[in-house]
Specification:
alpha+beta; Aldehyde Dehydrogenase, Chain A, domain 1; 7 helices; 21% strand; globular
Length: 179
């Protein structure tokens, strides 16, 4: 096994799944055994949802300008580790190196968009008739989920994670079991 067994990440830390069942991750490039991923159960999902629900009241109260700060650092880490991340996508997914680089570059671009959200979700007040105003306000939804397909293991999560979290939501992410 090239990489350590994958664990679930819940409430700020890595935890084992409640099931002993594992799925082997095999590189489509050379057939080598890369790692194992847990076959998480409904109980594991319920625990993740409980943790996300508990975090939501605190996280959602932070101003959006503070919430996006984490993504400026995240963008820096994506850029700094682009080559290594592209090699991982290539190895786990079977993409060419250039395809994998393009996927990480798109992930960076999507993160940049999330960093701009404070300017895009300001809301507005419109006078719709004399003495009547309509107000648009953006508020966090709560706990949201994203299921990642095998063919875009970096790009799809980066469509959802930065935006959902920057907008004040808490996130449950289910990556593909194939990568």
């Amino acid at each position: 096994m090239k990489y350590p067994a994958v664990q679930n990440f819940v409430n700020g830390g890595f935890v084992n799944a409640s099931s002993e069942r594992k799925l082997h991750v095999i590189s489509p490039i050379d057939g080598n055994f890369l790692s194992t991923v847990p076959m998480s159960t409904t109980r594991d999902l319920d625990e993740a949802v409980r943790a996300a629900k508990a975090a939501f009241p605190i996280w959602s109260k932070f101003p959006i300008k503070e919430r996006v700060q984490v993504f400026f650092r995240y963008k820096y880490l994506l850029e700094k580790n682009l080559k290594e991340l592209a090699e991982l996508v290539q190895e786990e997914n079977g993409k060419t190196y250039n395809e994998a680089v393009a996927e990480i570059e798109k992930s960076i671009e999507l993160t940049e968009f999330a960093c701009s959200l404070p300017q895009l979700v300001t809301g507005e007040i419109l006078e719709v008739s004399k003495g009547v105003e309509c107000r648009t306000e953006h508020v966090p939804l709560g706990v949201v989920a994203s299921i990642v397909p095998f063919n875009f293991p970096s790009m799809v999560p980066n469509w959802t994670i930065p935006n959902a979290i920057a907008l004040g939501n808490c996130m449950i992410l289910k990556p593909s079991e194939k990568v």
